[in-house]
Amino acid sequence: MAIRIDGKAISTEIKDELKERVAAYKAAGTDICLAVIQVGDDKASTVYVSNKKKACEYIGIKSLAYELPEETTTEELLAIIEELNGRSDVNGILVQLPVPKHIDEEKILLAISPDKDVDGFHPVSVGRLNIGQKGFRSCTPAGVIQLLKRTGISIEGKECVVVGRSNIVGKPMAAMLLAENGTVTICHSRTKDLASVTKRADILVVAIGKPKFITAEYVKEGAAVIDVGIHRMDDGKLCGDVDFADVEPVAGAITPVPGGVGPMTIAMLMNNCVESVELQKQ
Prior knowledge:
The protein is built from 10 helices and 11 strands. It is α/β, with parallel strands linked by helices. The protein has helices at residues 7-27, 43-59, 74-86, 105-111, 123-130, 139-150, 170-179, 194-198, 244-247, 262-279, and strands at 3-4, 33-39, 62-68, 92-95, 159-163, 183-187, 203-206, 224-227, 231-232, 238-239, 253-254. Helix 2 (43-59) links the parallel strand 2 and strand 3 (62-68).
């Protein structure tokens, strides 16, 4: 039976380590501050923002909340970002996505200073990742790396397959596995004979947005299977992109949904906020 990788426990471990680092910074006279901007009252976004504020409070960093009305314009949002870019007391800026359709999302993300881009979405952050420079790493794939490392799963020299090529998870995930000396293949909707590729994987990361898509026939015996997907089914239960019950008997290690990758995203956001102090000194 596979090892269940406990994302809740590992995320708490990371946050406790960050708490100590934040206390040391405070003792040395440095406060850390994250500005969180939410436009509109999307319920899921409100939950995510609330969780981010709680995490800030837990590790001891200050959070500035900007809760803006639905009708906020791109220009008004850009003006707030410009002000926050210029504030020396703000280390990180996060715009909760999705923004309302009338707002130019790309323009907003580009406006955030790469040195305060704690989500790791800015093209400069992506470029830094891909050429191995210091910078902010996209939080979900960075969380996957920590799950593997802290479970004792070595990446170096392993056959790693990423299913999904999104800018937020798939592409940065592949770059991070490569940086850890994995041998990396990316699969996507046009991949021919997907199972023949995924079945080679020692480490299989799935981020495709299709509930229970990956079954045992896609998985090599003993593989580490990381499920980035999350879906609410008709019965109200949550599941991932991997059919957990089918794959668990085959895998060597597997993340559950919920309680696997999800908690790691906020833990790594907090890590980026703390890392910002050193990055901004450069």
